Structure formats: structure tokens, C-alpha cells
Amino acid sequence: QVQLVESGGGLVQTGDSLRLSCVASGRSISDTAMAWFRQAPGKEREFVAAISGYQWANGNTYYANSVKGRFTISRDNAKNTVYLQMNSLKPEDTAVYYCATTGQRLASMKQENYETWGQGTQAIVSS
């Protein structure tokens, strides 16, 4: 069973950047789909970004429209880690960010397809 631990959250100002990390242990995630979701205060958890487990072209990536062009998901298989680079942050990006894996190669934007989740890391963007 894989375990996921997120880090990298913090308090930043509008326009700043953060890089979130998700370190996996227990087994390799190099061939599995990984994703980031977030949950803002008082709101439901929502999809942010995903990367497939296919090795060619470093995997297909998918983004929510609200973060497209500002966020980048990537992976370092040697470190068994997935990243979320967040640029041009806005107050509406304030949320707890969760890393998750489907356990298979195909990525998804649906939470129900993800079998393992981390505990989350909080990002707060002040105006």
C-alpha cells in the first residue's frame, strides 16, 4: 500500500508562487496516475491537476480551467515525488491541497477514481 505525504504549503501574497510536493512511500508511483485536488473553506473538494502514469512524453497532464496556465504538475520518478508548481496565485487559490493516486496508469478528474490520498497541505493566499 502506498502512502502519500504532501508539503510545501504556506502563507503567500497575491501573485506569489508555491511549489507543493507529494512524496510517496511503500511502492513506486512511476507508472501510476497522480493528481492534486483542493478544498477551500466551506466548499467541496475539487480537481486541480493530474498526470498519467504513461512514461512517454512524461505522461499526459490535465488541469482545471481555473488553474490552467498558472499551475504545472510534474513528477520525479527517481524521488518518487509529484509536484504542483503554483504561479500567479490568487486569493481564490486558498485551500487545503491533497495529493492522490488512482493506482493505475490512467488519470482522472473524478475523486472517486482515486484510491489513496495524502493528509493535505494548506496554502493561503492573502490579497
Q: DSSP strand (E) fraction?
A: over 45%
Tally of DSSP helical segments: 0
Q: What structural class do the secondary elements suggest?
A: mainly beta
Biggest pleated sheet: 7 strands, mixed
Low-confidence stretches: none
| Helix and strand element order | EEEEEEEEEEE
Tell the overall outline.
Answer: globular
- How widely separated are the two ends? 40 Å
Determine the mean pLDDT: 95
Helix content percent band? under 10%
Radius of gyration: 13 Å
Number of strand elements: 11
Q: What report would you give on this structure?
A:
The protein has 127 residues and is an all-beta fold. The chain has strands spanning 3-7, 10-13, 18-25, 34-39, 46-51, 61-63, 71-76, 81-86, 95-101, 116-117, 121-126. Strands 2, 4, 5, 6, 9, 10 and 11 form a seven-stranded mixed sheet that branches. Strands 1-3-8-7 form a four-stranded antiparallel sheet, with no helix packed on it. The mean pLDDT is 95.
Would you spell out the secondary-structure blueprint of this structure?
Blueprint (H helix, E strand, L loop, with lengths): L2 E5 L2 E4 L4 E8 L8 E6 L6 E6 L9 E3 L7 E6 L4 E6 L8 E7 L14 E2 L3 E6 L1
Parallel strand pairs: 2-11
Antiparallel strand pairs: 1-3, 3-8, 4-5, 4-9, 5-6, 7-8, 9-10, 9-11
